Amino acid sequence: MKELEERIKAVGTVLPGNVLKVDGFLNHQVDPDLMQKIGEAFAARFKAAGVTKIWTVESSGIAPAVMTGLAMHCPVIFARKHKSLTLTDGLYTADVYSYTKQVTNQISIAQKYVAKDERVLIIDDFLANGQAVTGLMEIANQAKVEVVGAGIVIEKAFQPGRQELEAKGIPVMSLARIQSLAGGQVEFAPADEGE
Question: Residue 129: is its pLDDT beyond 80?
Fold first, then answer.
């Protein structure tokens, strides 16, 4: 997605450890116009997959997931990372390691919002090692629902996340694929088909 790549180049910052900071439009301040285009791109790519629900992990995946849900006219569930007084019983859970925060969180989704015949599209802000998507897939296995694909806003193509997911049979669509962050410069890999 050319507009996304241009925004990454304009406002993204490369930090030590191959971290790309995009808090100017994606995961602190959110650009709703860009998120709408992102949601429409995912909806177009996965329109034939029979998606009945969108899943993501809080919090940076929520904006693109909601816009995808809006474009596809289906509900969105975000897995919570933190315990809540209102979310205590009847949960599906999985442990997820955060590459950027270097912590493991237990994510959870309330069982009452998951039906056994659902076809789930996972949306995430970044794909590096695939931990968030893998955690959601673990919950999908517990719930006996089918994951029909993963829509990724920004993929670090030099890390193994895509290979891990594709080895599990999950179709992946990334809107921006980063080949390298060497020397503080963003170099893009070829885009996925269907954009």
Answer: yes
Asked if 161 and 130 touch (Cβ cutoff 8 Å), the reply is: yes
Identify the CATH assignment for 2-188 out of 3.40.630.30, 3.40.50.200, 3.40.50.2020, 3.40.50.150: 3.40.50.2020
pLDDT at 102: 79
CB 170 within 8 A of CB 151: no
pLDDT in tens, 1-38: 999 999 999 999 999 988 999 999 998 999 999 999 99
Mean pLDDT of 159-181: 96
Ranges of each domain in the chain: 2-188
Average pLDDT for 54-70: 96
Tell me if residue 99 falls in helix, strand or coil: coil
Q: For residue 153, list its beta bridge partners.
A: none
Q: Which residues are CB-neighbours of 44 under 8 A, at least 6 positions away?
A: 194
Stretch 83-87: mean pLDDT, rounded?
63
136-166 in b/e burial notation, b at 16+ Cβ within 10 A? bbbbbeebebebbbbbbbbbbbebebbebbe
